[in-house]
Amino acid sequence: MKYDLTVIGSGPGGYVAAIRGAQLGLKTAIIERYNTLGGTCLNVGCIPSKALLDSSEHYHNAHEKFATHGIELKDLKVNMKQMIKRKNEVVSDTCKGVEFLMKKNKIDVYTGHGSFVTANKISIAKSDGSTEEIETTNTIIATGSKPVTPAAFNYDKKRVITSTEALNLTKVPKRMVIIGGGVIGLELGSVYARLGTEVEVVEYMDRIIAGMDKDCSKELQRALKKSGMKFHLKHMVTDVKATSRGVTVSYKKRDTEDILTTKADYCLVAIGRRPYTDNLGLENIGVTKDDKGRIEVDAHLQTNVPGVYAIGDVIKGAMLAHKAEEEGVFVTEIIAGQKPHINYNLIPGVVYTWPEVAGVGQTEGQLKEAGIPFKAGKFPFKALGRARASTDTEGMVKVLAHQETDEILGVHMVGPRTADMIAEAVALMEFRASAEDAARMSHAHPTYTEAFKEAALAATDNRPLHI
């Protein structure tokens, strides 16, 4: 078989690229080494983690908030097996949806490990030991990433686990240590903290979610502490030892040699992810990678080999499913002769804890470092009627605007449904709106989005209405 476009990897970047390619009239194939489509995101990442986050939030609300609302329960308990079963059903339905989309768009699906023989010939190694070769004019590498698991942490998939195993625990642990205070560790940590697990987070940096605005870090840490999570900031893990019944984690402050230890049922390693480019035959065609193992690409996301492109976690940039999707569409439109564009500054980042965290554009720290004059406006959710009505009063919205032009340069939120609210900021910034534009837009009352309007008012000329 010969194709106009072949996509290796069926995560959000890969399958969206394939769909867009088919829409544009390209004869398209997709290669996936696992039996289900969807990649990390749908199978062991975004979708299952959000399913558990929602389930644990329901339990937490029933346990902590229902009485306030006048709802009384007896014998409340967690049925972890049912929670995992529901999560698996959500994953299955979502993956089946991708299978349907492949059939609908007449995309040929190959199951097996794809690797380059030449730039235009790909070998597919199947689980039964057989191989098949296809020819292709263009190829998109969309193979995603894998968790980083240093040898010193003794990752065994039983007691020392990554996000993959953490999504399938059938009993609520009594204690869990999380190495890493980034998005993945905090999301999964909050799942188990809500269910009653004592959670400790060991983070090398001086704050959690270090890539986001500092105010967001402070607000989220304050909220997670209230749920019982403990934080050891500016600490590094030196050793992890596991037995059949638990783990011992050794760690120390960055500037001392005094070793501390803590014991737990599980140790979740969440210190980041690495590009997955193993055994792709990149050396056969001379594709170059940088010192971090990422595939190097040009402005069109093409590698140094003509006709071979790469998107998502295997290239430079944030490891986000929606970033990969945008890149998948971008590349297929380039191949079809169009002139698409991606504004990487306007790809939002989200943490799906509760309260949620969302941000887009530049942070206050980045603006200061770049010497860009700016003004900031903040508004707390505790001053918002809708937030008080739902008892979701933690967090704030922060709008950063240019001191002279009033153009919105960054929006950062911690609070209820900020993952959805951030889209308004993205849309406004896409059209280079000013803080005053946002402040003059009518926002329905009572809604959470009023906090964005108020923060914009505060940034415009320091005139919020409700504080």
Characteristics of this structure?
467 residues, alpha/beta, FAD/NAD(P)-binding domain, Enolase-like, domain 1, seven-stranded mixed sheet, five-stranded parallel sheet, 14 helices, 33% helix, 25% strand
Topology:
Blueprint: E1 2-8, H1 12-23, E2 28-32, H2 39-44, H3 46-64, H4 80-104, E3 108-111, E4 113-118, E5 121-125, E6 131-141, E7 145-147, E8 160-161, H5 163-166, E9 175-179, H6 183-195, E10 198-203, H7 214-226, E11 230-233, E12 235-242, E13 247-253, E14 260-264, E15 266-269, E16 273-275, H8 282-285, E17 308-310, H9 321-335, E18 349-351, E19 356-361, H10 364-370, E20 374-380, H11 385-390, E21 396-402, E22 408-415, H12 418-430, H13 435-440, H14 450-461
Parallel strand pairs: 1-2, 1-6, 2-3, 6-17, 8-15, 9-10, 9-15, 10-11
Antiparallel strand pairs: 4-5, 5-6, 7-16, 12-13, 13-14, 18-19, 19-22, 20-21, 21-22
Summarize the structure.
The protein is 33% helix and 25% strand.
Describe the structure.
By secondary structure, the chain is an alpha/beta fold. It has 3 domains: 2-145 and 274-344, FAD/NAD(P)-binding domain (3-Layer(bba) Sandwich), CATH 3.50.50.60; 151-271, FAD/NAD(P)-binding domain, CATH 3.50.50; 355-461, FAD/NAD-linked reductase, C-terminal dimerisation domain (Enolase-like, domain 1), CATH 3.30.390.30. The chain is built from 14 helices and 22 strands. The protein has helices spanning 12-23, 39-44, 46-64, 80-104, 163-166, 183-195, 214-226, 282-285, 321-335, 364-370, 385-390, 418-430, 435-440, 450-461; strands at 2-8, 28-32, 108-111, 113-118, 121-125, 131-141, 145-147, 160-161, 175-179, 198-203, 230-233, 235-242, 247-253, 260-264, 266-269, 273-275, 308-310, 349-351, 356-361, 374-380, 396-402, 408-415. Strands 1, 2, 3, 4, 5, 6 and 17 form a 7-stranded mixed beta sheet that branches. The protein has a 5-stranded parallel beta sheet with strand order 8-15-9-10-11. A 5-stranded antiparallel beta sheet has the order 18-19-22-21-20, sandwiched between helices. It is globular, with a radius of gyration of 23 Å. The relative contact order is 0.12.
